[in-house]
């Protein structure tokens, strides 16, 4: 018969994703299973621990790499110990949520739009995602994403911006938002020309 140590088969290093047990959190439940040769299997007990703390054999592992220590006993006699790693990766996309925004140009004819104005509660399963915006309807790999964008007088009317959410693991998603850019009130009242431009854009959009 083999030595008692070789009769114990500890769990191997494992790589899992957060979605493996259902989506919506940054953890995954993993069942740790050690096996023993048939003659001693019924008396095998294995204690698992992480950082010195005993954990159940069915355990919720966080994102990243966790080293698990395992100690095997047969009939209360210590037989062998081992360690292995559980590596959890976040494979769930963030959710980018936008809301329509109105940007009023300032007296210099410039209006700034920030991420915070466009964001309507974007989330990720692993903490708050990084949010950026860019002009236009872009894919996740599009260029020009930044914390804010600005509009000029030539962009009065309806514009589209794209909000991009990036989680800590680099997963990304996008969502567009409608942006209405309007002249400052004093321009509309003082300048019939600018008021007409605004109206023309309005008709083109809704007429
Ligand atoms: Ca999960
Ligand atoms: Ca995620």
The global form is: rod-shaped
Number of helices: 4
Give Rg in angstroms: 29 Å
Class inferred from helices and paired strands: mainly beta
| SS strand fraction | 35-45%
The secondary-structure element order is EEEEHEEEEEEEHEEEEHH
Bound molecules: calcium ion
The domain count comes to 2
What name is given to the CATH topology of the largest domain?
Immunoglobulin-like
Q: What is the helix content?
A: 10-25%
Q: For the record, give the distance between the C-alpha atoms at the N and C termini, rounded to a whole number.
A: 88 Å
In short:
Helices cover 14% and strands 45% of the residues. The protein is mostly beta strands and 207 residues long.
Describe, in plain words, how this protein is organized in 3D:
This protein has 207 residues and is mainly beta. It folds into two domains: 5-89, Immunoglobulins (Immunoglobulin-like), CATH 2.60.40.10; 101-206, Immunoglobulin-like (Sandwich), CATH 2.60.40. It is 14% helix and 45% strand. Strands 2-9-8-5-6 form a five-stranded mixed β-sheet, with no helix packed on it. Strand 8 (64-74) and strand 9 form a beta hairpin. It is rod-shaped, with a radius of gyration of 29 Å. Mean pLDDT is 90; it is low at 201-207. One calcium ion binds next to strand 3.
Task: Give the SSE layout.
Layout: E1 8-9, E2 14-17, E3 27-31, E4 35-36, H1 38-41, E5 44-50, E6 53-55, E7 58-62, E8 64-74, E9 77-89, E10 101-104, E11 110-114, H2 115-118, E12 130-135, E13 148-152, E14 157-166, E15 172-182, H3 185-190, H4 192-206
Parallel strand pairs: 2-9, 10-15
Antiparallel strand pairs: 1-4, 3-7, 5-6, 5-8, 8-9, 11-13, 12-14, 14-15
The site of one calcium ion has 6 residues, from strand 3.
